[in-house]
Amino acid sequence: MSVDDVPAQEAWARLETDPAAVLIDVRTKAEWTFVGVPDLSALGRQIVTLEWQSLDGRVDPAFAERLSGYLKQAGKGGDTELFFICRSGARSRAAAEAMISAGFGRCHNVADGFEGPPDSSRQRGKVAGWKAAGLPWAQG
Fold this sequence. Notes:
Layout: E1 4-6, H1 8-17, E2 22-25, H2 29-34, E3 37-38, E4 48-49, H3 63-73, E5 82-85, H4 90-101, E6 107-110, E7 137-138
Parallel strand pairs: 1-6, 2-4, 2-5, 5-6
Antiparallel strand pairs: 3-7
């Protein structure tokens, strides 16, 4: 099994049509607070926020165990579609790969993440990703 990249609009459409699907934001608490988070309230759901790594770059060695426990407690099994998002798609891919190793076979990486790459003015959120696609989000 491998992780596929899914454009933000496709991730939204699949979250919209599959009420069991889960969006997991693996950025840091500071990013959630100061940059914002995807907003699934129109779908009657919330995102899962769990840091993949700390601000100093250390990966949480218990990430897969903690997320697996949360998902199982929420009644989500290994066949649940999981969408992972970070700033630009790198951390979320690594987190999705960890969850495939933990037995969750339908893991997807949201391509270009929440903010996407920087534009010509070196600002994010305008070229690609969740924000640039005009998908719902809220300030953390």
